Amino acid sequence: MKEAEEKAEELGEDISAEKTIEEQGRDQTGHKQIRVRIDERNLQTSYVSGFRPTMTAEELILDFGLNLARPTGNQENPVELVFQANNRLIMSYFSAKRLAVALGQMVRRYEQQFGEIELNAAKRREGRQS
Fold it and tell me: Which residues pair with residue 59 across a beta bridge?
């Protein structure tokens, strides 16, 4: 991401992750206000605990689903992790970058309010035992 920001700076563009979606919209369209209507009639809700990204030259593909621990009956490897893919999103790299910026902003806000998110499960368990 740093490389893209440096390149944009050279070209006189500002793609800072600090800008809100609204500010980015104003910059890109030149309009002071953009009205967005959201039609939720076909909205479906799913819970995901994992994802699998893949890519082509034209698109980014994200499979979302559940990470499931299943017993194998084998003493050497008693549990296997199964990724059960339930939903697939296919998007352009432009949309993917906007999504990445929006998610980064949301995670930053969350961590400012509640503290850093520890991704290492072993360290999270250590913190609870202290």
Answer: 92
Place of tokens 């034209």: 58
Report H helices in the chain.
Answer: 2-10, 21-29, 93-114, 121-129
The structure tokens 């991704």 sit at 119
pTM of the predicted protein model: 0.66
Report how far residue 105's alpha carbon sits from residue 100's, in angstroms, rounded to the nearest whole number: 9
The model's pLDDT over 81-116, given as tens digits with 9 standing for 90+, comes to 999 999 999 999 999 999 999 999 999 999 999 999
The answer to whether 85 touches 64, Cβ cutoff 8 Å, is yes
Q: Would you tell me how many other CB atoms lie within 10 Å of the CB of residue 11?
A: 8
The Cα 26–Cα 75 span in angstroms is 59
